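Q: Can someone sanity-check these two? First one:
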Amino acid sequence: MRARAFLPAVLLLAVGVGLTPASGLAAQTVVPGAPPVAPSGPDLGTPVGVVAGDTTPIGTITVVALEDPFAGFAEWWPLPPDRRFVLAEITYENTTAVPQTIANDTFWVVDAQGFTHPQSFPPRNDAELANRPDFLGVAGSTERTVDPGTAVSGAIVFDLAPATAIAQIVSRPTLDYVLTDLSVTLLDLRPTRPGYAESVAIAGPDGAPLAAVVAFPPVDPLLDIGPFVTPEPGVRYVALTVSVTNTGTQPLPPESSDFRLIDRHGIAYRNLTLPTSEEYRAAAPDLRGADLAPGETRTGEVGFRLAADAEIAAVVYTPPGGPLESRFVVVAEPGVVPNAVPAPTSNPVAPDPAVAAVTPDPVADTPGCEGVLAWGEALAPRAFAPIVAYTEVLTQIGNPGGDPGALDPARLRQAAAELRAVADDLADDDVPAIARAANDAVVGSLHQQAETFDALAAAIDAGDRVAIDAAAATAAGLFDTFGEGDAYNALGAACPEVGG
């Protein structure tokens, strides 16, 4: 599938970077207790089975290779000095009889502290792209369609801090289920894994202690339910007892929704209030309640509704203070082997280089729009390059709970200078006449953001909290509205090939 919308792609990437947690700041250590569970993969080159929400097999995904660090970027791109990029080669095999669509937010890195990192899109050089095509087919695409019975291969890139240790690469496709989603481990590099009844110490984004969590062996299945409740066919109830201790200095709100169970297929089950009897609830109180004061511990129960044949592979905790997808802290694993599948021994479906490269479908230029599509596809990565280089800026500006006052003024001024350089470079481009107004709008937006970053740096130097918050709000607003306006709308209406 060919992506023809260049500005929406830039916006999608900006949002993704803005929601990326600061890397390498939190700490997760295992306190000695029960013996850690032995590693069980999957390793590089191991095909991992992928299922639909009803556990029907739909294909396999293999992390074929990992290049860490990766440096094959376009020569014009200003490689940020304080970032590390990692390239993974992925093969996806569709074993069904229908096409499957893979979105660009499917693959994530989970680091050793439990923070998650989405796919990044730095511009790679031509030789790199020819040798290892982008997994999505065309750089900047938002999705890719895999035909029935075929396998496609390609590269994806992740943007990490230099000291960030990769723990896992996971596939987390979006599903429209109320109580479940998918989180399939494709590669696991952890040297040890916590078991039940083992205390896991967790730190917050600032590196300070936050909590200690213990997950005990669950009651599975839970049979002590209310007298008027009968479990539906094909499901069972599970009660997980957890202990949460506030090891920080601020109140900690323990929530049942902070915990999920993941089965061997990667299906992640969210919590559910169980229909237990009054006697059971009195003996096993719910985890929820008032905030924990520093040093306080609460032990309570978290309920789940699982498929009758689901095998629990992991208990996952998401500390408070961020969205569910921002942390992925495994607090217990019973040692269930993940959904690995043996490599084919005969008649394998080999990746088709022609399919992997994705020959673009011909797009007929609307009269007067000649060259606009090529201009737009070249503009997107260049306009986005300085944003990729400063993920910590967007983390503090664009996320609830972020503190723009904690940013380094020198970094903000450096980002502003690079925004201006890119804007000036774009202004000098040979742009199709019909796209000139849109190009000028991009240039103007980059200059506005540069001015806002300079204003924020000055406010931080002056210690002016009001000015800091005002500049940060302006910067966030500029990112939110980037790509909107009459110039873009007019170009999209005149040249449909850039808007679909």
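And here is the second, same format, sequence then tokens:
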Amino acid sequence: MGRIVSQRVAPPHTAVSIKRFLSKQEDISDYNCTNLYATIFSHSVLEDQSYVSVETGDGPGSSPQHPMALVILVPPPKKTKKEVAKMEAEERKRKKEAEADEKKRKKEAEKAEVEERKRKKEAEVEEKKRKKEAEKAAVEERKRKKEAEAEEKKRKKDAEKVEAEERKRKKEAEAEEKKRKKEERATPASPTRSPGIPIQAPPNPVPELY
């Protein structure tokens, strides 16, 4: 701020007030078309509401060696009707292409949604089929277990029957043995020869010789 007296800048000392003051001093009609920089080497623009210390003697623009920079923004050149028409045609083409892309995207999304619903439906049918088969298998397993239990009961019953018959047979055999022994004791003993001594037949008479 080497060319102006800092006290002449009306408060508040913000970037927009300094831009307004400098633009008036430099006969710039619209201060909005300017950017204010803290130094000539700054790359970032001071925001309009940024506070700038201009009265302390050590802030931005406090000496000619460290001036602030006010950059005038040059408006872009006006385009011809032909260029405007071309730009409008390109914009319409871009919008049309964007609409076509959006329609295509929506169509693909709808197709994907239909396929997803189809996939879910097939999955549900497959799940129902799997559950039905599982229920059928469970029924068959219960039937098989029931048949196995019935077979086991029958086997045990047959085994018990055989065991009962075996006990009956043994009991009858024991009773028969007791009866036989009892009869033997009741019958008188008959004379018997000594074992091992053979009975010799009488010798044939020897004929006499005269």
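A (reply): Looked at the second one. The CA atoms of residues 15 and 47 lie 7 Å apart. Strands lie at 34-37, 69-72.
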